[in-house]
Amino acid sequence: MNLGQWIGLIAIVISLYILWQIKEVLLLMFAAVVLATTLNRLARRFQRAGLKRGFAVLLAVTIFFALVIGFFWLIVPPFAHQFNELTSRVPQGFNRFNTWLNELRPRIPPQLVSYIPDINSLIQQAQPIVNRVLGSSFTFVSGSLEVVLKVLLVLVLTGMLLVDPLAYRRVFVRLFPSFYRRRVEGILDQCELSLEGWVTGAIIAMGVVGLMSVVGLSILQVKAALALGVLAGFLNLIPNIGPTLSVVPAMAIALLDNPLKALAVLILYFIIQQVESSLITPIVMAKQVSLLPAVTLIAQLFFVTFFGFLGLFLALPLTVVAKIWVQEVLIKDVLDEWRDNHAQETELVIVSHSPEVDEKWTEDKPANNLNDDA
Fold first, then answer.
1. What gap in Å lies between CA 56 and CA 156, rounded to an integer?
2. Beta-carbon contacts of residue 235 (< 8 Å; ≥ 6 apart)
3. DSSP string covering 289-320, please?
4. pLDDT score of 37
5. Whether the predicted model's global pTM rises above the 0.90 cut
6. pLDDT tier at 128 (50, 70, 90 boundaries)?
């Protein structure tokens, strides 16, 4: 390697290191791009209906904020009420359990009495854990503030991108060589269509899962059925893991009434997820985004390992975009072209002659020509 190649290698390594250090910022930028792309497509639909660009963007943003505010309005108050009820019932449960143990002591052999746990000693042993949890409340608050700041950053970036999306797109395209810019424009169009398809399929799946959850929980007479159904639909955005997270608060609230009701909620959510994975996803999502299930799961594990919860939440759109770039750039523009060039070189090797054959051909050529003239 010469000096220029060493400098290029060092520059690539330094660039990768810098990108790794700012990976969280890049992930937030990608979240803003996904949100801006979705709102921009919605604004374009309003423009086709006859609205001007400014009013179309304003209407799309208004619909988005109305959905966000409605989500928190439906979710937070019922869960706060149920959490207060849960905290008030936990001591009652401990007292009931302690009374049951006291009634059980005279009926068991004396040698087994020492093995029966004392509820007071258990509370004393759990006291350090409770203090540790309370002591980490400041960390939780600071983490919540960090989440709020990240959300505000994503919203601000989304607004900036919505003002003039073509300007930012032209800046990105100019990062590529001039002969490849038209090709990049086509790849970006495919990414935009795929992201729109993912959003459409995700919204349909969210609506169906949320509706089925609300109906099922209402039949089981579980409190806050509407809030739990909306939460189940929202967590359905996270494949494989979101449904598991959504069943925990539903079972906790059902457990306040009856343990059998909590078991019924678990069975209900299992049936809903089987219907979603067997019918909704193949029919709806497969037409919008063609991703293999194993690829989706591997992508989730990869992004949650390196990027945390935000990477898990954005794993599917990141995989969709990465798939398009790998398919169009690496496979079609590099590997397929290399295959064609290699085939041409192979054909040239097949039709070429060895030196002995060439000499014999040149010696026989004049004789053959003389015979032909004769």
1. 18
2. 242, 243, 245, 246
3. ----HHHHHHHHHHHHHHHHHHHHHTHHHHHH
4. 86
5. no
6. low
AA letter at 295 = V
Distance CA 198, CA 239 (A): 13
Residue 51 DSSP one-character state:
-
- Rounded Cα–Cα distance for residues 361 and 354 (Å): 11
Per-residue burial over 24-57, b if 16 or more Cβ lie within 10 Å, else e, is eeebbebbbbbbbbbbbbbbeebeeeeeeeeebb
CA distance 346 to 220: 70
How big is the CA angle at 251 (ends 245 and 309), to the nearest 5 degrees?
Answer: 15
The count of residues in the chain is: 374
Enter the tokens of residue 18. 């810098």
The answer, yes or no, to whether residue 368 has pLDDT greater than 70, is: no
pLDDT one-digit tens code per residue, 212-229: 998 998 898 888 788 888
Q: If you compute the radius of gyration of the chain from its CA atoms, what whole number of angstroms results?
A: 32
Tokens of 99: 């009374």
> Would you state the structure tokens that stand for residue 25, as one six-digit string?
């910022």
